[in-house]
Design a protein that fits this description.
The protein is α/β, with parallel strands linked by helices. Helix content is 35%, strand content 25%. It folds into 2 domains: 152 residues, NAD(P)-binding Rossmann-like Domain (Rossmann fold, 3-Layer(aba) Sandwich); 129 residues, Dihydrodipicolinate Reductase, domain 2 (2-Layer Sandwich), CATH 3.30.360.
């Protein structure tokens, strides 16, 4: 049996991922894959963490998960680990405890709270030779994967995505929730963004990325209370236009995590994950400069 541990039970993803593996909704879910251990964690100054940590821990215990006193205990009882803490600010510290153990690690979103911290996690992975990846569930929505497969050799020209923006304490404004839509754009266009422009008002955002080959990707950030929330996308192909709406289901992501834990290649490279943070940081700087274009930071990282 593949034993999965979760470090940080203060996210709804802990119960959602566990239920997918128990229910069989995930294609790879079966009696050979189970979440068996977890450590609560929690950040006292992050309301969405501290207000839910105890409840999710109890729900995990009810699902038969062993609640451990330390991350080290989770490692001892697991074959692979999900770093699930909802507060991205603690991910560097937790990664520094998990990566040396040599187990494969999935880092749940957000990878970190800003680009510098994301780079530290990339460097920890390089130092210890750790197999790891991070990804938003939006990358693996069935409709998106089917659309890209159906496109075949048709060239992708553009990608326009919309989604919710919700800032959280101590994070880049887009890192905690806007990252979903931005990662979806990257799942279509790939690495190679050159510059970013952001127009922001109290009612919404439009963030435009220009890729080195001239393709353009946009993310429209919908502010809560101003616009219906949710996620969707329009993919511009040379031969057609493909509109999509996303239910934000986790099954596709859980399948990717299990395949990776079983020895598969990381479906998202460290270099691309770091570029996503460069994109978000450039967007924030563009906003400070009243929408002027900002070049992405260097993100040449092995892997």
């Amino acid at each position: 049996m593949l034993r999965i541990g979760i470090v940080g039970l203060d996210s709804s993803h802990s119960t959602a991922f566990t239920d997918l593996l128990l229910s069989g909704r995930s294609d790879l879910a079966n009696e050979q894959v189970r979440v068996v251990a977890g450590w609560t964690g929690g950040s006292a100054d992050f309301p969405l963490s501290i207000s839910r940590a105890a409840r999710f821990t109890e729900e995990m215990r009810e699902r038969g998960v062993q609640i451990c006193p330390t991350p080290a205990d989770v490692l001892e009882n697991s074959d692979a680990v999900i770093l699930g803490a909802v507060d991205g600010r603690c991910h560097v510290e937790l990664a520094s405890q998990l990566f040396p153990a040599g187990l494969p690690v999935f880092v749940d979103k957000p990878l970190a709270h800003d680009r510098d911290a994301a780079l530290q996690i990339v460097q920890l992975g390089q130092r210890y030779g750790t197999r790891w990846f991070t990804a938003s569930a939006l990358r693996y929505q069935q409709s998106l994967m089917q659309a890209l497969e159906s496109a075949g050799d048709d060239e992708v020209i553009s990608c326009d995505c919309y989604g919710t923006v919700k800032a959280m304490p101590g994070h880049l404004e887009l890192a905690w929730y806007g990252v979903h839509g931005i990662e979806a754009v990257y799942s279509v266009l790939g690495q190679g963004c050159r510059e970013v422009r952001r127009v922001r008002t109290d009612r919404g955002d439009v963030i435009t990325g220009v890729w080195h080959d001239g393709r353009i990707g946009t993310f429209r950030g919908c502010h809560e209370g101003e616009q219906a929330t949710g996620f969707g996308m329009v993919i511009g192909l040379r031969q057609s236009i493909v509109p999509l709406e996303f239910p934000a289901d986790y099954a596709g992501l859980v399948d990717e995590i299990v395949k990776f834990f079983r020895g598969g290649e990381p479906p998202v490279t460290a270099a691309e994950s770091l570029e996503v943070f460069s994109f978000m940081q450039a967007a924030e700087e563009s906003s400070r400069q009243q929408g002027r274009p900002v070049l992405l930071s260097s993100c040449e990282v092995a892997g």
